[in-house]
From TrEMBL:
It comes from Caenorhabditis elegans. This is Serpentine Receptor, class H. PANTHER family: SERPENTINE RECEPTOR, SERPENTINE RECEPTOR, CLASS H-RELATED. The chain crosses the membrane at residues 35-54, 66-90, 110-130, 151-169, 212-244, 256-280, 292-314. It comes from the Eukaryota.
Amino acid sequence: MTSALEKYYATNYTKCNLEYNFLASWKGVAYPSHAIQVISLPFQILAFYVIIFKTPVAMKNVRTPLLVNHFFCAFLDLTLCTLSTVYFFLPMYGTFFVGVLSWFGVPNTFQILLVWLMVLLTVGSYLYFFEGRSSILVQNKFRITRQKTRVIYYFLFLIPWMSSILYVVKFIPEDQDAAKQFALTLHPCPTREFFTFDVMIFLADSILIEGFIWIFPIFGIYSASFILFQVTTLIYYICIAPSITISKDTHHRQKVFLFSILLQCFIPLTLVLCPVFLVFSAHLAGLYYQTMVNLTVCSAGLHGLAESIAIVTVHRPYRKAVSQMATEFKRRRRAVQVLPFLANHMRHSVTMRQSF
């Protein structure tokens, strides 16, 4: 901490009426996130197992997109909960990390790029999942059949993501001490972590902040439009204008699978988008609570857990496979418990015979 920050901490900051709040501290985002990862890991492994080994023949054409989507969802969960757990100061646009990579001294800039990359790949995997499913439908007039067209399509999808990260990285202030002084004019009473951790301010200009506030939702809507378009075409060509060449049974299975994948994706995305929307709306309204931001980060860490549980529950073949695995586990457990009883019974019988 520089002399200017030390002076502010010793004088101005003492006037802030801040009481210790576990959820607002670094522990309030680090400990729950790490616990979420421990709980999520078995479910993520289970989801990998059923996708790879229990996918029926009827779902073979969607196994790869489903596996890719689950892989990046799980890796995003690993990044947010373990590798680069984020502590974010929203009104000050500053951050530091309390994950494993910080223990090894990995710079904040690299961790920001890592988190951004994983968010990009995860969102892209949802697009790949729905686009792959949509392109299978022969009756779909908008399906992508040429590899060159697909490359252009995904490049257009990536433009705002690449532009936004370049926007942030380019304007990261070199003089972080001056940036922190500017940040304190935006929010004079941050949590003590602002002074005790290596916080990096990545936007320290009112005009740049104002631009980012409006660019971020515009880019979000732009990216979401790609996924929503694929979802819309799926709903239209399966539920409204299905192919007349397929059987009723095939059409029914398509509708069931469509409902399953929509539910599978809707559940985890809700855990992320709703808290982010609430925090962003509160920020625009001039309200800010560090507890709210930390809970949003923890909620984002639940995305992988919810996605894994959704996979093994909403799809009937996977649900049936998990049920059979649970039944087999209970059967073997009972068998293991019975073996000592039988052994004791046999020893007792032998002892009784010898006594006679």
